[in-house]
Design goal:
The complex is a heterodimer of chains A (204) and B (157). Chain A is an all-alpha fold and 204 residues long. Chain A has twelve helices and no strands. Chain A is elongated, with a radius of gyration of 19 Å. Chain B is mainly alpha-helical and 157 residues long. Chain B has two domains: 3-51, no CATH class; 72-156, no CATH class. In chain B, helix 3 (21-33) packs across helix 4 (35-51) and helix 5 packs antiparallel against helix 6. In chain B, 16% of the residues are buried. Classes of the chains: A mainly alpha (204), B mainly alpha (157). Chains A and B meet through helix 3, helix 4, helix 6, helix 7 and helix 8 of A and helix 1, helix 2, helix 4 and helix 5 of B.
Amino acid sequence: MILAAAMNPEAFSGAQDAVVRLRRGDPDALAAMISRYQHRLYRYLLRLVREPGAADDLFQQTWLRVMEKIGRYDARRNFESWLFSVAHNLAVDAWRMKHGESLDDPGDAENHGRPLGDWLKTGDPDALERLLDFERGARLAACIEELPVIHREVLALRFEEDMKLEEIAAVIDIPLSTVKSRLRRALEGLRAAMEARSPERRGA
Amino acid sequence: MSEHESMAGLLALAAAGALDIQQQRLLEEHARACPVCRRELEVWSLYGQSLRRLPQPPVPAQLMERTRARLMSERTAAADRTWEALMLGSLALFAWSVGLAFWFVARIVTGGQLLVMGANLVRFGTWSAGSTLLVWLTAAVAALALGKRRRELRRAL
């Protein structure tokens, strides 16, 4: 979508224009922006917090914060990544209040998943067929929910929001190398969870 | 670390499109010669495709309308707070000015001395302390009352 906006100057200037009108407090611009981002922002928050009620509340809080801070928004910055970073920060605060730890703490994330080398050692020749055989989407979504929050977040931003690695780094405020390592661990963890749920393994 | 092992570390990132051009080229070259990595690359590629097509959660009913309503409500509350603060300041300034005018009148009428329980009420320090306290209390009550009336009128409209 970002790429689409970048390749479509009209869409990009439309977004910038909406931001300018938003800064002036134009209620129509606000409605347009909420409408434009509601699916993506809600989906991102839901992937993070997993509870529809909490995602709903964070969605509303995000727009309240956007309206509070829009005067200080640097127009040279990508609005989308700024918006998601506002949502990320609110989710971090909510998570910290609820769980007493930072969203960015790796927690059990470092041990989640299986080293990639193991996959190659075991061979697992049926992996491709199994992956194709099952209701992939629903099972994948269920497996993603088992992942640590920091891994769910990078997967959502990369694959669903189609953000570049640099944009993900800006949203979460972490170095690019950390984005890459989180992505790798997230994918490995996801694959481990998918394999653990496969019927062959359950039946064994 | 063998080439195979170092390439294995790049497979998942390839699915995420997170390799630079050189890494991507090295991995592709290796995969052409290595059936295990080629197969792994296919599997990871399927993961990547599937992750881009996950079932989409429905947006809760009237999320946009509720968000707009909450924003408007917050904005109105903030405007009310600003209005009440301005009203408090204006009323206090007005009342203090009136108090000062009365002080001049009181001094002229009483000849500069009005003793109550041993204190000269028309002495500037006593008068200004008393009137300031009285003025701020009255202004605060008036501002709150006016603010309440304003909110009630808005609700009625």
